[in-house]
Fold this sequence. Notes:
Chain A is built from one helix and nine strands.
Amino acid sequence: MKKRYFIALFSIIILSIFAIQSCQDDDICIDAITPRMIISFRDKTTNAELKMDSVNVYRLNTSTNNWERIYFSALKSTIEINLNVNDETSTQLRVSQFYQNSTSIYDNVSVSYENSDEFLSKACGFKRVYKNVSILLNTNTLFSNSEQNTTEISDESQTHLYLYK
Amino acid sequence: MKAKHICIFISSFILTIYNAQVDSLKVKKNIDSTKIVTKNDSIKKRKIAFNQIFVGVDFFNPINGFFSEKKGFQGMVSFHVKKKWHGVIELGYEKNTFDKINWNIDVNGLFYKVGFNWKINQDYENSINGFILGARIAGANYKQTVNQYPIYYYNNTISGNTSTTTTEVIYKSLPQTSASAYWMELALGGKIQIKKSRFYGDFLFQPKFLITGKSKDNDTDPIVVPGFGKSTSGFNFSVYWGISYHIK
Lengths: 165, 248
């Protein structure tokens, strides 16, 4: 009788080892991570969506003080640009029509904000949320004016900045 | 996949218990045929049943601590309430580290569990021996230090002649905070006398289901908790192999 208990308890031990082995993490992130800034272009007279023939975006690297080209597209009316994820409270962008930085027509956009990290999940970690955002179009060479649509960049569901050409 | 494994485990466990149950029924039939023995047996059983106080310690986790980042110890007290019901209190301390998928979290602290064991069947030679099914409410109060947490972001880059977006990660850290977590636990296992001594071996398999948990100054979910371990979507299990002493 006692022998049978031993056998049964032994099988519990063996089974529990198998159970531990089989319990593997499945950690694939499916949530939305740190949002990019959504910029939409509009025609200044008709207020309609405007497909830019060509857009080049540069970002100021504050450690080297260089403008780095990070994005280009053709015939798009909406673009997604990532802001800095470091501890700095602003991102300097340059939206240009052409590749050649020196010769092209461009405008500088400065985006300042407060950083806030929000917990998503174990698989997705945290995301950066930009609060109290203020966006400034510093020059009016390419775009005549801008319209800030929100003061918080927490997801990519809406346009954050309209640029009128 | 995970669910499948758990299912296989539980069904095989039930089968083992069923087999043991059948065995004990067979023994019961044998005893029934000699009526005098049955009477004596039931009187004896009742006497023992009112005096079952056990104090035990776990050996699995301290030994396992040599091979894993989960280090700790645990003890339990159990006492007979009535019929097949036993009250159980478990107490322990655990230190653990979660160092995967870009996280690095250290936790250490106390955990406690209160619940019951229900005897599924009993050995007719010694009514303390047998399989048990139990449930516990458990909690932990602990210190948590997030040495590294990941922030994932899309990064615009230009490689060659194409504009692409890659997913990248930066790391930040959080100072130590106090945290707490609560969970439900099942217990499946058995108790068996070691030779003819007052010592008994305890074998428990304990699936756990996280109810809630928060750290004090940030909203992170419990990823690793003393006594619970590393959470896999709020589920985990532990093993208890210990020795308990029959006090009274």
